[in-house]
Amino acid sequence: MKALKKNVFREIQKTKSRFISILAIIALSTGFFTGVKASSPSMIETGRKYFEDNNLMDIRLVSSVGFDDEDIQKIKEQKNTVDVMPGYTADLIMTKNNIDTVVKVYSLPEKTQTNDKLINEPTLVEGRLPKNEGECVIESYFYNVSDYKIGDTIKFNEKLQNSNTQDIIKNLAYKIVGVVSSPVHITYQRGNTTVGDGSVSFFIMIPSDEFVSERYTNVYLTTSASEEKLTPFGDEYKNRIESQIKDYEELSEERIKNFNDTTLSDAQKKLSDAKKEYSEKKEEAEKKINDGAKKLHDSEQELNDKLLDAEKKLSDGEQELEDGKKELEKAQEEYSVGIEDSKEKLKEAEEQYNSGQEEYRKAKLKYDTEIEKAQSELDSAQTEYYTQYSLFYGTTKPQAEAKLSLVETGTSLCKEGIQKAEERIKELEKNITLEDEAKKEWDELKKKIQEYKDKLKEYETMAKEGRKQLKDGEKQLGDAKDKLDKAKSDFQDGKINGAEQLNNAQIQLDNAQSQLEIGRLEYNTAMTTGMLQLQSAQTKITSSEKELENGRKELYEQKEKGMLALKEAREKLTTGKAEAKKQLSEAEEKLKNAENTISKLNEAKWYVYGRDDNPGYSGLEEDAQRVDNIATVFPVFFLIVAALVCLTTMTRMVEERRTEIGTLKALGYSNRAIAAKYFIYAASAAVLGSIIGAAIGLATLPYIILDTYSMMYTLPATILVIPWESFLFSAGTGLLCTCLVSVIACLKELKIRPATLMRPKSPKPGKRILLEYIPFLWKHMNFTSKVTARNLFRYKARFFMTVIGVAGCTALIIGGLGLKDSIGVIADRQYKEITIYDQIYALSESGTSKEKSYIMSQFHNDERISESLLVSQNWTTVKYGKNNKISLRIIIGENKKQLEKMFILRDRNTHEKIRLDENGVVINERLSQVIGAKLGDNIDFTINDAPYHCKISGITENYAGNCMYMTPAMYQKLTNKETEYNTVYTQIAEDAKENEKDIANDWMGNDDIITVSLLNEQLESITSTLDSLNVIVFVLIICAGLLAIVVLYNLTNINIAERVREIATIKVLGFYNGETANYIYRENTVLTLVGAAVGLPIGTLFTSFIVQAIQMDMVMFPQQVNFISYIIGFALTLAFSLFVNFIMYFKMNKISMVESLKSIE
Amino acid sequence: MMKNFVEFDNVYKRYKMGEVMITAADGVTFSINEGEFAVVVGLSGAGKTTVLNILGGIDNCDEGRIMVGGRDISHLSGKDLASYRRYDIGFVFQFYNLIPNLTAKENVELATQICKDSMDADTALDSVGLSQRKNNFPSQLSGGEQQRVSIARALAKKPKLLLCDEPTGALDYNTGKTILKLLQTKCKEDGMTVVLITHNSAITPMANRVISMRSGKVISNVVNPSPMPIEDIEW
Q: Interhelix angle for A783-794 vs A1073-1110, to 10°?
């Protein structure tokens, strides 16, 4: 057996890197799991120890009427009550740099008779506790972030909402002498208040004798539950306190009854006194006011009379002026009419004259032409006549007379011839007997007679012709003569006629001229008269104007005088009124006080709170839970990967030692003995790894994580709690994985007969892979790619392990970055998309819409403010689950339109707008998740302690804070009261954005405004709170890197070890170092790429898981992974892989080629 | 034919095994001519593998000079040695050393892809008579076939020197004979210089030159003027 043991240690020595890689992965998973798991209990323990050391109260009682010593005594007598300490608190307002802040003032805890351990003992961090009057200690959390120093003074405002500061505490200014932390406030949260903007900024502590009131406001007590050191977040503690609270509530009823019997009557007496005083004062004041009013009335009357008179004069003057103006108008009209008329006439005359002239000219022209024409006609007629005359007498007449004479001669000759011829004939006839000669002569004679007869006829014609000719000529001459005569008479006629016409025209022209002359005259006259009239009217106007001026002057004087008188009277009245008011208000205040007291007394109530009511107390538990959630999911990855790594490594190892196993078996060792070696090997790696990992994990992670929260908590140094269960679980898992795997692998080998075992195991045969059956792809791959592809598919287990490991690494990085992205996006989404107001003004007094209309009009008039909305904003709590509460704001906007501009109500996924109506309320998504209410469910809540319930009509996207929106109408419907507004939300105009603080300061001067909060400041505080989560991101990335490195190292190691022979062979073949490395790395690279790619979607899921796990009640994370985060996750994974390759390069170079010559084992 | 193609001149190689210093090569001096079939014979531990390793550029010598083809390789850097192996040496292993995940052809290609002037993988496989089985994986081949692939892989690089480390050591008698026959043929027909180491002195008659070693020293270097064909040798 000794030899076998030695064998184990030798084996470890020989295979250091393998041993270390198993050890490392187990150390990593155990360390991470244990470390993160330790954070949550450490956090709780740190808190518990702190509460115990500083004796944090278990129960706090608050009374609306305060406690007296008898009350305290009774409380003490309750069972299970260990120690009781009365004290005071007050929420006061201080103004610094024009910003109002609410300060919670506590009385310093004081020793009680029963126990000398202070309840809620403050830890003095710096300075000292108050010794003298007017000194205080300030809380450390605020002290560290503010610029207050020891020695500075905190100065409270004199006025508080409904009372004076000095009614509550003795001094207004307190000097800071020390810095403390209180177990009551373990976070940065300071809770809500009813004064100022409703949130407390910090607290101070002063000695209790600085408080004015005799009655204590608070009673703190410890119970047996904490005396027995029960875990404060445990169920037993919670149950005990719960029942204890019920006891005190019963006691409270009894004490209140007692109070009513004793104190109430006293107060009622006070009230009646005050009432009496008030009515007296009121009467007096009323009288004074009436006097003043009468005087004022008189002087007003006087003034009115005077004014009336002056006004009358004024109106007279005005009337006259009016008349004058009218006259002037009339005159002007007449003037213009006259002028116009005569102008017309003149124009007409001128026209006529002009036309007359024209006509005359035309007539003259016509006359002249006609005369000329007649003259020429006359001339031509005369010429013709003379021509005819000379022709007749010169030619025609003598011709005709010559002819005639010729005819006469011829005729007579003819007649003589005929006679002679006839005479011969008769002669002959007497000689009839004469013979032929005679006959012949007879014939001739006869012929001659005929000739003569013809000739005679001719002459007769000729004579006729001549006669006719003569006659024609005579006639022609007569015609010419006629014509001449006619022309002569025509000419004469024309001449006479024209002259006459011309004459007529001349007459007409003359007429027109005279008419024109008349028109001109008329025009001039009209002008003159008009002018005259105008002048007279003007004069009248001037005079009346003067009169009017006088009247006005008089009126002004009267008014002035009257005003003066009136002012005097008014002043008197105001003084009187003020006096009266003062008296009255004094009385009223007294009355109010008395009434208040009474009403308070009537409503007297004790409130009993457990520690949960301390702001941030339950947050510690939630934060611890959140860390625990992360702690549970993360290591799952690690454990899975660790198991895979161990599995591959141990299987490989057993396979390597085949021959040895066979030899040992042949030598006769039992199976158990043989397997023991591997079992011990694996177990020692696992145990050692677990211890080393846990040690490192516990020493670092809880501190890193709690350090993150230390920014939010004021807890003392972390107390480490070792989570044994988690350690044992993770170490056990590691151990189980490694040992089981090695034993199983070993047993598998042992089943084979030793002879076979001693022969070398044939290497895993090569196989064709699926890819080769896709020739298209296979053919296009180069030789080395083919080899890589075959190798990848050859070792499937390794393939999956690497992919899972690398994917886990990528997922972790993306998870970390995604967490950062999700957080980072909150501020932008919330304050740039959802709630887009810039400032919140708290009003000093709440009031209805009508009462606040004045201040709202002031906001509207401020040009630097683009939108303003009157809001009723109240804090309330909603109970859910068994005993949980969540606080939220109820927001009622006066104006729906403006509300929708400043609060974007929409569905987160669809961005669909959500309408506010009278059927229900809208709550934010986170609230609905926390209380587990869905759309359409009813939600129970309180307004001014009165319970209401209402349907949820919408669930809106919102990231920071919880709120409930309703309309004023809905509020009225619920409560039967009108909404009382107390806040104004504003948006700053774009061009005034940089003056935001100035605007706030300006408004702080307004009496109606009590505080202003700027959204930008809220934004900063949220961002810084969330920044603390960066540490988690960092831790994640570191762990992811370690995981990737261990996994890849281990696998590459195995890969190389398995392929030493192959590597040596290719080296012998002449591969250079780089080529050899590539031959192996190509597989790593592909595996890393595949793993990283697979890691991307897992990372997304992972992010959403982490985000869910760390979600707070008040904050919702949007779950977002930026594109760049994917790239970083991918790139970092590749970088880790490259780093591993780099390391392995040297290892590979060291492989001796002589290995190739060795026989297969 | 180059005389003294391979020349060992007083070569020393020492290993440290724990506290003992072992001199694996103790002043080894010999030479081999080009185209010779040289057999280095000796018992286990005689230093023959050391000689082969140094000659193959797998190992360095501590002292002495080794000339191959007129080039001194005794003081080459790691990278130059790799180039020497790549371009000048063909190595045939006792256990074939085929990459199990590659087919016969791919195993040959593994060698040819890194050489500038290499034989085609198919031709190389044809020349060793394995054209039918080139797409088989080593596990599907018999030992003799695997060794033939190994020889094809070595020859495909067209080396100056073929080094064989007990090539028949893992083979049965007949298969061993065929492998030796193949090597002898390659030497005779292609003029390849072959250096073969073996512990089996029975096969020495087939060599041109027989170098016997013992305890890291060369005890004889005999030239055989008429080598016998392998078929005629029995052992």
A: 50
The pLDDT of residue A1 is above 60: no
Does residue A1074 belong to the interface with chain B, where contact is any CB pair within 8 Å?
Answer: no
The answer to whether the CB atoms of B102 and A1065 lie below 8 A apart is no
What's the start-to-end Cα distance of chain A, in Å? 25
Q: Give the per-residue pLDDT at A1161.
A: 47
- Nearest CA of chain A to the CA of B229: how many Å? 28
Q: Rounded to the nearest 5 degrees, what angle is found at the Cα of A378, between the Cα atoms of A374 and A379? A: 120
Distance from CA of A788 to the nearest CA of B (A): 10
Kindly report the CA angle at A375 between A374 and A377, in degrees rounded to 5?
65
pLDDT tens-digit profile of A445-476? Answer: 888 888 888 888 888 888 888 788 888 888 88
Exposed, middle or buried by CB within 10 Å (0-12, 13-18, 19+), for A1156? buried
Tell me the residue type at A82. Answer: V
Distance (Å, rounded) from C-alpha A853 to C-alpha A849?
6
Contacts of A1066 in chain B (CB under 8 A): 99, 110
Pick the residue of A761, A769, A788, A1068 with the most B CBs within 10 A to test the interface with B by mutation: A1068
CA distances from A786 to A783, A1054, A1082 (A): 5, 21, 11
Provide the pLDDT for residue B11.
92
Q: Which CATH architecture has domain B35-60+87-232?
A: 3-Layer(aba) Sandwich (3.40)
Domain positions in chain B are: 35-60+87-232
Residue of B nearest to A1156 (CA): B97
Picking from A764, A791, A1070, the nearest residue to B82 by CB comes out as A1070
Task: With CB atoms and an 8 Å threshold, state whether B56 touches A1156.
Answer: no
How far apart, in whole angstroms, are the C-alpha atoms of residue A79 and residue A64? Answer: 24
| Residues recorded for chain B | 235
Chain A partners of B114 at a C-beta cutoff of 8 Å?
1069-1071, 1075
- Asked if the C-beta of A1068 comes within 8 angstroms of chain B's C-beta atoms, the answer is yes
Contact list, B93 vs chain A (CB under 8 Å): 1065, 1068, 1156-1157
HSE-CB for A597 with a 13 A CA cutoff: 17
Domains recognised in chain A with CATH numbers: 1-53+612-761 (no CATH), 59-229 (no CATH), 256-602 (1.10.287.620), 824-1021 (no CATH)
List the beta bridge partners of residue A100.
A95
Q: Which residues of B touch A766 (CB under 8 A)?
A: 99-103, 137-139
Q: Tell whether the model's pLDDT for residue A147 goes beyond 90.
A: no
Q: Is A911 left (phi over 0), alpha (psi -120 to 50) or beta?
A: left
The reply to whether the predicted model has a pTM over 0.80 is no
User: What tens digit of pLDDT does each residue of A651-700 get?
Assistant: 888 877 877 888 888 888 888 888 888 888 888 989 999 999 999 999 98
Q: What is the amino acid identity at position A166? A: Q
DSSP state string for B75-103: T--HHHHHHHHHHHEEEE-TT----TTS-
- Of A826, A834, A861, nearest to A924 by C-alpha is A834
Q: Which of B53, B138, B165 sits opposite A766 (nearest CB)?
A: B138
C-alpha pair distances (Å), A255 with each of A89, A214, A679, B87: 21, 17, 73, 107
- What is the least distance, in Å, from the CA of A808 to any CA of chain B? 29
* Cα A1125 versus chain centre, distance: 28
CA distance linking residue B152 with residue B141, whole number of Å:
14
Per-residue pLDDT reduced to its tens digit, B163-213: 998 888 878 888 888 888 888 888 888 888 999 999 888 889 999 999 999
Residue of A nearest to B83 (CA): A1070
Distance CA A363, CA A367 (A): 6
Share of chain B above pLDDT 90, in %: 26
